[in-house]
Design goal:
The chain is α+β, with helices and mostly antiparallel strands. It is built from 13 helices and 12 strands.
């Protein structure tokens, strides 16, 4: 028999019992759809988290006090330890392009919690002392009004730029620019409102930004007897992704000189790209885990194929005997039953792919894990091809034993079968 005759015969045999074939397909359909949906969801989360970190600033480096390993908290601004400090003068020293040619922006910050009061509303929120460079280095965009200016920093002005959520909770849909709020019982004038950030770092919308000198002198953030302005984090922007390592070395060299370090550093320089790669590695493990869990249902579907094919072989014993008596070879019978198993699996894979595409399309952009966790998902060609190939492979794998059993039947014994 030629391949076309084998496929036609296999199709005829399957359509002869539509209900049985449909129920067998169902296991493969569910298995393939589960694998594609779970892997697509995992990849969507991975892409979303990576995009969120990249949105914090291009080619970002963060310098924090202490020699401990830098964590993800460095990208939000965190307090240093009691044994080492970074000062505003350290940050200004890193601006010198003669010594840091690979660095194009330096933005120190201080952060603490403060009570915010407007009218009858009050809340506790994070207040961050910043410089004008913070806007570009940390990729902040102003929706209304202006950002902190050099004049504000020089005069330690009582002004603030508020996050989108703070604006909504205190002012609703009104324009808050020019309004006065109280921070720790001190009046501050709102000069700007930040654009809303969605996703993983949506909590940044609940921040208030003030001049870094104002945070130190008026709000008493990290005051010391020496009078130095201590900072929690120095954000540095490298000139390009390729210049990140050079920028890290230049920053480390200057701080070692300023701090008179001869042995262990009392600061940590964290590379944003390292954090992104660590997250990608971690989420890749999750993607593989999700795919493996969903793959169990595909394995169960394959077992269903083998079960049905064994029943089919038993039911068609006389048919096999007649074909062998008429000259059909072992390989003809073998290929026929393998073709039936493969056709079942392929059809189930294609239907499962269509079902998965519909589910992923509905879930994409929906707040799956919370109101600010919209995940852009999509069925990538590699996942679709892999799922279909695996479904066919499982069909063939579980169809081999029934096909071999059919091929090895002796024609006389098969003809005698009742």
């Amino acid at each position: 028999m030629n391949p076309i005759d084998i496929l036609i015969t296999a199709l005829t045999s399957l359509t002869a019992n539509k209900m049985r074939a449909s129920l067998t397909l169902l296991g493969i359909v569910i298995g393939v759809a589960s694998v594609i949906v779970m892997v697509s969801m995992g990849q969507g989360v991975q892409r979303s988290i990576t995009a969120e970190f990249e949105g914090l600033g291009a080619n970002l480096l963060t310098v924090t006090p202490g020699s401990s390993e830098g964590g993800f908290g460095a990208f939000f601004g965190g307090g240093g330890d009691d044994e080492s400090n970074l000062t505003l003068e350290d940050a200004y020293a890193l601006r010198d392009s003669e010594y840091t040619p690979s660095v194009v922006g330096i933005a120190p910050e201080i952060s603490s919690w403060a009570q915010v009061v407007f009218g009858g509303e009050e809340d506790w929120t994070q207040v961050v002392g910043v410089t004008p460079e913070y806007e570009s280095v940390r990729n902040y965009q102003v929706a209304l009004g202006d950002f902190i200016s050099y004049k504000h920093v020089e005069n330690a002005a009582s002004v603030t730029v508020i996050g989108a959520r703070i604006s909504e909770s205190l002012f609703g849909y009104r324009d808050p620019v020019g309004q006065t709020i109280k921070l720790n019982d001190r009046p501050f004038t709102i000069v700007g409102v930040l654009e809303k950030r969605e996703g993983l770092f949506g909590e940044l919308d609940q921040r208030l930004l003030v001049p870094i000198t104002t945070a130190h002198y008026r709000l008493n953030f990290r005051r010391t007897d020496q009078g130095d302005i201590l900072v929690d984090t120095i954000n540095a922007q490298a000139a390009s992704p390729e210049a990140t390592n050079s920028a890290k070395d230049e920053i480390s060299a200057i701080l070692r000189l300023r701090h008179r370090i001869t042995e262990k550093d009392d600061f940590t320089v964290s590379n944003q790209q390292d954090a992104i790669e660590a997250i990608q590695s971690a989420t890749q493990v999750i993607v593989i885990f999700l795919g493996s869990i969903a793959g169990i249902s595909l394995l169960v579907g394959g077992i269903g194929v083998m079960n049905i094919m064994l029943v089919t072989v038993t039911e068609r014993t006389r048919e096999i005997g007649i074909r062998k008596a008429m000259g059909a070879k072992r390989r003809d019978v073998l290929f026929q039953f393998l073709a039936e198993a493969a056709m079942l699996s392929l059809t189930g894979g294609l239907v499962g792919l269509g079902l998965a595409y519909g589910i992923v399309s509905m879930l994409s952009g929906q707040p799956i894990f919370g109101p600010d966790s919209q995940i852009a998902m999509g069925v990538t060609p590699d996942i679709a091809l892999l799922a279909c190939a695996v479904s066919i492979g499982i069909g063939l794998f579980f169809g081999v034993y029934p096909a071999i059993r059919a091929a090895r039947m002796h024609p006389i014994e098969a003809l005698r079968y009742e």
